[in-house]
Amino acid sequence: MKNELFNLIDKLEKEQSLTLGEYQKLIENYDSELSLYSAEKARKAAEKYYGKKVYVRGLIEISNFCKNDCYYCGIRKSNKSCQRYRLTKEDILACCKEGYALGFRTFVMQGGEDAYYSDEILCDIIREIKSLYPDCAVTLSLGERTKESYQALYNAGADRYLLRHETATKEHYEKLHPHALSFDERMRCLRDLKDIGYQVGCGFMVGSPYQTAEHLARDLKFIEEFSPHMCGIGPFITHKDTPFAGEKSGSADLTVFLLSLIRLIKPNILLPATTALGTIDGKGRERGVLAGANVVMPNLSPLSVRKKYMLYDNKIATGQESAQCVEELKGRMKDIGYEVAISRGDAK
Ligand code: 5AD
After folding, report:
1. What does pTM read for this prediction?
2. Percent of the chain with pLDDT over 90
3. Ligand 1 near 119 CB (within 6 A)
């Protein structure tokens, strides 16, 4: 068995593809030795395209109003304990100004699905950022919108869009979301984003409630087939004010192993070591990079709102997590042999 697993990693490295059953076998039987073996190959694959560089993105959490009620998420509309906020254009531009001075060349505007942000308002903000900082990329992570809306935002200058698929299995999707949200609509959005020409990021949570190894195998197959430019994965972490408050959080070990598999599937993918990974493991960011991740997304949101964008319990918002501490992040990356790059950091 042990040899068989190592052979599967060799095969994945060579062919960038395995069967669903093979992925499932790896996920069900991996151990620390296999994980280290995979990480070494994943690092080598990343290095071929990106060298020993880590890209940074300044994350601006523009609103925690959300019309959705995802069972796992702390900013779901039914959470009455969540103190809601939304940033103005001026707030967002101030974040960009600070971020630019700190060396960020990608700004990610992320938020709940907040109807306040019409196409008109967003296009105006995007145009302004692009005209003030023409050497920067603008990434959006604002959930599901119509194709026309995605097109308008793209025309205004947005370069990239992050929309996690959350799970590639329809039945599982329905256990994580209320009826108002549908798996097919999610997939429609991802296809539209790609057709329009965005650099697209999908992704999923590791260890979300009801998730099985088979589901995760399907997530990997989905990444193979959809071939996104980016993929964000992090452990599911419980949030006390959600229906999943009593569920177990996901594991850092499995997240790190999956990062390596994703790197081997798509050697040139942009792969973040996520905040959630950094939250359940103090060395999560470093472990992610050493497993093949090549992106970190420090928080650029105004300090006054940072504690309010609580997708899950204990989300880290200071220290290496904050854009203001990019020097600390640089030091941590240097300690593991990596260098933080000042560039847009497009996919190669
Ligand atoms: N734990 C981990 N990740 C979460 N997200 C939302 N809630 C949680 C949670 N409790 C992730 C989702 C979403 C992204 C913005 O944050 O995958 O797409």
Report:
1. 0.97
2. 94
3. no
